[in-house]
Amino acid sequence: MSLDELYQEVILDHYKNPRGKCPIDCPHAACSLYNPLCGDQVDVSLSVEGQPEGCPLKVLDVGFAGHGCSISQASASMMSDLCRGKSVAEICELCMAFREFMRGNRSAEDVKDQLGDAVALEGVRKFSARVKCAMLAWEAMEKCLKQV
Ligand code: ZN
Q: pTM for the whole thing?
């Protein structure tokens, strides 16, 4: 199996069996984004854990809802899987790393430990119109983090 085929399988798996595709009850933050170029909709919601003063704020759970192309929905599944249980600061870094990866400024090799399954979206970088699809959930997450 070539790397392209493997990546395709990872994307399809997230698309068909999304992780965390269930909006959170009474979320601490929520953001819906729409990509008019493709018709994708992603709604991201999250809950945070109350922390003692001075401790990093932690995201307890991440959920999403939405519809659209396989890239947008698989990327939302990968993002929620990756961010669940991480601190707000860590998630900011993940979002930045993913953006740099999508822009071609960082290689898959460089970010694979950090981004996990999301490196399977490497092939999307060749199609600038689809980068927006892949970025949608991550942008919604960044907007959510500004609310907590
Ligand atoms: Zn799309």
A: 0.95
Is residue 45 classed as helix, strand or coil in its secondary structure?
strand
How close are the terminal C-alpha atoms of the chain, in Å?
A: 43
Rounded to the nearest angstrom, the distance between the alpha carbon of 86 and the centre of ligand 1 is 27
Count of C-beta atoms within a 10 Å radius of residue 55? 10
Cα 102 to ligand 1 centroid, rounded to whole Å = 14
- Alpha-carbon distances of 56 from 39, 42, 89, 140, rounded to whole Å: 36, 27, 8, 21
Mean pLDDT (10-residue bins), the chain, 148 residues? 90 94 91 97 93 83 96 97 95 98 96 97 94 98 96
Helix 70-83 × helix 128-145 angle, to 10°: 30
Rounded to whole angstroms, the Cα distance separating 38 from 40 reads 6
Please tell me the distance between residue 57's alpha carbon and the centre of ligand 1 in angstroms. Answer: 32
Those residues whose beta carbon sits under 5 angstroms from the ion ligand 1 are 38, 40, 69, 72, 133
* Identity of residue 78: M
Q: Calculate how far, in angstroms, residue 67's C-alpha sits from the geometric centre of ligand 1.
A: 9
